[in-house]
């Protein structure tokens, strides 16, 4: 059981300098020992479990700071205002020795409940004493374990960053077109399983090409970046904002009803108009506006291809109305087919399929 370190050991620990610590580590070669000491000192936090058989390898399991080390021992740590608190959850802890080595060697405070507090640097259980039995070989194994764990974590972070870069548009910070296609399939499948819905909102920056040609690509990039930021800030937590291409953006809205969709679009248009009223854009605010079109699966669209085509068609209708408009998809062929007889309706169905690129029915 880990308890409070005795005052004698505590005072002795506080007064130890580097040389005495090296002696406690059992390192005879002073030059190599000092080098080893500085390697250890450069590691911010080291967690080591020591048994009679030696040091157990440390495997870093997650970026959250959770380590899994044999015999069902789980060590988790967090940083507080006055230092570090280490919570211990363990089975069979009495037969083990725990050491935490950090940049400086100061005091040790181990509460009876197993929580380690204060300006924590070295911890030892009451049965083991301090680092008396820790040989140079064991320290070397410890360093290798830490380096392996650190390398594993760095590689994991690097891979995660690459994955993130692969799905994000570098100019705007929104997700890119490839990620949109992947998530669209996933969200359609999820909506189908839960009998839910998926709205696809398409947004186009009216007159962006003219603006870009007039004021330059740097100004155009700033406008795209600001627009994307407004879209992302006003989307719901689980909505997915992507750059579809050029000056077109899309927002996937799982289980959104018309009220959710209209509310978001209104807020986006309001904030975008406010942005255009800033000093930077005031002189040419009338050139830029937003046209929006959307459709909803499965209420209007039967599949993902339908959903894209319908949202794009609604966007086209909004721009055709003079830009700066919002339209939900409506099948114009369905609207007018009642004016035709059955033979003409069959021909109309073929024309509809050709127009929208859809199958009949």
Automatic annotation (TrEMBL):
Q: Where are the transmembrane segments?
A: 36-56, 130-152
Q: Does the keyword Transmembrane helix apply?
A: yes
One GO term of the biological process aspect: negative regulation of bacterial-type flagellum-dependent cell motility
Single GO molecular-function term?
diguanylate cyclase activity
According to the UniProt record, one GO cellular component term is:
plasma membrane
PANTHER family xref list: DIGUANYLATE CYCLASE DGCM-RELATED, REGULATORY COMPONENTS OF SENSORY TRANSDUCTION SYSTEM
Q: What is this protein called?
A: Hypothetical membrane associated protein
């Amino acid at each position: 059981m880990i308890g409070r370190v005795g005052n004698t050991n505590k005072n002795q620990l506080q007064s130890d300098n580097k040389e005495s610590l090296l002696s406690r580590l059992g390192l005879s070669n002073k030059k190599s020992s000092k080098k080893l000491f500085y390697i250890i000192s450069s590691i911010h936090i080291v967690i080591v479990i020591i048994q009679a058989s030696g040091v157990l390898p440390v495997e870093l399991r997650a970026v959250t700071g959770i380590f899994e080390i044999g015999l069902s021992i789980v060590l988790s740590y967090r940083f507080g205002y006055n230092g570090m608190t280490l919570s211990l959850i363990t089975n069979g802890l009495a037969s083990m020795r725990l050491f935490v080595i950090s940049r400086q060697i100061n005091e040790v405070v181990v509460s009876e409940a197993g929580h380690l507090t204060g300006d924590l640097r070295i911890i030892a259980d009451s049965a083991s004493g301090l680092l008396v039995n820790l040989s140079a070989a064991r320290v070397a194994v410890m360093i290798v374990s830490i380096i392996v764990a650190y390398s594993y974590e760095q590689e994991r972070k690097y891979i995660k960053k690459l994955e993130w870069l692969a799905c994000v548009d570098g100019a705007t910070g929104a997700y890119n077109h490839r990620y949109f296609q992947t998530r669209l399939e996933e969200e359609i499948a999820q909506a189908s399983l839960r009998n839910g819905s998926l709205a696809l909102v398409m947004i186009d920056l009216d007159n962006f090409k003219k603006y870009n040609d007039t004021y330059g690509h740097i100004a155009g990039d700033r406008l795209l970046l600001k627009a994307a930021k407004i879209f992302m800030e006003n989307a719901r937590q689980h909505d997915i904002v992507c750059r579809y291409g050029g000056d077109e953006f899309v927002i996937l809205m799982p289980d959104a009803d018309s009220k959710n969709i209209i509310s978001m679009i209104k807020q986006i248009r309001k904030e975008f108009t406010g942005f255009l009223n800033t000093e930077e854009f005031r002189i040419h605010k009338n050139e830029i506006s937003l046209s929006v079109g959307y459709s909803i699966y499965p209420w209007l669209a039967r599949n993902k291809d339908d959903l894209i085509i319908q949202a794009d068609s609604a966007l086209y209708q909004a721009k055709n109305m003079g830009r700066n408009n919002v339209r939900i998809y409506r099948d114009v062929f369905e609207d007018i087919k009642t004016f035709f007889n059955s033979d003409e309706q069959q021909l109309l169905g073929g024309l509809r399929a050709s127009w929208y690129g859809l199958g009949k029915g």
